[in-house]
Design brief:
By secondary structure, this protein is of the alpha+beta class. It has helices at about 40-50, 90-100, 105-120, 135-150, 165-185, 195-200, 220-225, 230-235; strands at about 5-15, 15-25, 30-35, 55-60, 65, 75-80, 155-160, 185-190, 205-210, 210-215, 240-250, 250-255, 260-265, 275-280, 285-290, 295-305, 310-315, 315-325, 335-340, 345.
Length: about 350
């Protein structure tokens, strides 16, 4: 196990910059998730840590040692890919032991490592099978087993669950979390799925357009998103946004969304009266109440079983409410609600959070 330091790391493909300077320290044993939409540069960053992609500038250190120039095999890290990358002609046991065999590890040590990993992953009864005789989830487990037997300094996961169906993803996600609890190994996990990021990470690194947008625990990103990108990316259904103008008078403030709609807002000295702002509230934080300050008609109802997503329109802006109250299932009903002050998020004209 080891800590990993990423300092001012940039990446340019030809003239095309894809990472604009990433600084990140990953503590020994930490589970870090790099998350962001397609093309944000998360896989490129992971591949640079693995040594599969050159670093254009900056430095990467694993266990305190600069690895910019080190070949992948000399970095002592194990990578688990979406495609599993198993050898089809080898048994599960041989796939798992391959890296130890080429290092000429003694036979007994190999057997111990493979049996130990197989027990942890529930693969004991599959050791003699070929990969083609396994399900997708089992193959992904073999890929993880192959990584575990090496006892690497760190595990790198590149969208390892993307090829699995929803149910299996859920199951494997929990298995990866349990496994990390047992092994305590430094792990970096790339995904575009914010639920995977929220459920797995000690800390999430949210990326967009080649920039790190925010680094923090899952709940820090959920409770206090640093900007509009993170606010919109983390959480499902996504946060509602209302654009307006901020007015402050003494100890009260409001965001005027339109001539008909003004929302009481948090008081902050970071905004001057008349500033353009975006107000955010998560669908699950809208308070449905019979005597609410606001009302809107319901355009659409989406029952999820666990609750109901109501689609409203506020001054022509799409707005969602999540509720577990089944009585609100009646479509096209006018509903009344409040936007609790303590649940509001406020972003300035540049999209940066302006309240604590
Ligand atoms: P995805 O989830 O789709 O894989 P990502 O966030 O992992 O997205 P990267 O694969 O890191 O994104 O790619 C970041 C950017 O770099 C993209 O615009 C991509 O087109 C570009 N890119 C990646 N590899 C190369 C390459 N070998 N040559 C040129 N451009 C590349």
């Amino acid at each position: 196990m080891a800590s990993i330091h990423i300092e001012a790391v940039r990446k340019t493909f030809g003239n095309f910059p894809v990472l604009h300077g990433v600084d990140l320290t990953i503590e020994n044993g930490e589970f870090i998730v790099l998350v962001g939409p397609s093309g944000c540069g998360k896989s490129t960053l992971l591949r640079m840590i693995a040594g599969l992609e050159e670093v254009s500038s900056g430095e990467i250190r694993i266990a305190g040692k600069r690895v910019n120039e080190a070949a992948p095999k000399d970095r002592d890290i194990a990578m688990v890919f979406q495609s599993y990358a198993l050898y089809p002609h080898m048994s599960v046991a041989d796939n798992m032991s391959y890296s130890l065999r080429i290092r000429r590890t003694p036979k007994e040590k190999i057997a111990d490592a493979v049996n130990g990993a197989a027990a942890k992953l529930g693969l004991d009864t599959f050791l003699e099978r070929r990969p083609k005789a396994l399900s997708g989830g089992q193959r992904q487990r073999v890929a993880m087993g192959r990584a575990i037997v090496r006892q690497p300094k760190a595990f790198l996961f590149d969208e390892p669950l993307s090829n699995l169906d929803a149910r299996l993803r859920e199951q494997m996600r929990a298995e990866i979390k349990r496994l990390h609890g047992q092994l305590g190994a430094t792990s970096i996990y790339v995904t575009h799925d914010q639920i995977e990021a929220m459920t797995l990470a000690d800390r999430i690194v949210a990326m967009h357009g080649g920039y790190v947008q925010q680094i923090g625990s899952p709940l820090e990103l959920y409770d206090r998103p640093a900007n509009l990108f993170v606010a919109g990316f983390i959480g499902s259904p996504g946060m509602n946004f209302l654009k307006g103008v901020y007015y402050r008078e003494g100890t009260t403030a409001a965001v005027r969304v339109s001539s008909r709609l003004s929302v009481p807002a948090p008081v902050t000295t970071q905004l001057s009266s008349g500033a353009e702002v975006t107000l955010g509230i998560r669908p699950e934080h809208v308070a449905l109440t019979s005597e609410g300050r606001f009302s809107a008609s319901v355009d659409l109802v989406e029952p999820t079983g666990f609750g109901v997503i109501l689609h409203l329109s506020i001054d022509g802006v799409a707005f969602k409410v999540f509720t577990q109250d089944r009585a609100t299932l009646v479509p096209a009903k006018e509903i009344s609600f409040d936007l609790p002050l303590e649940r509001l998020h406020l972003f300035n004209a540049e999209g940066v959070r302006v309240i604590d």
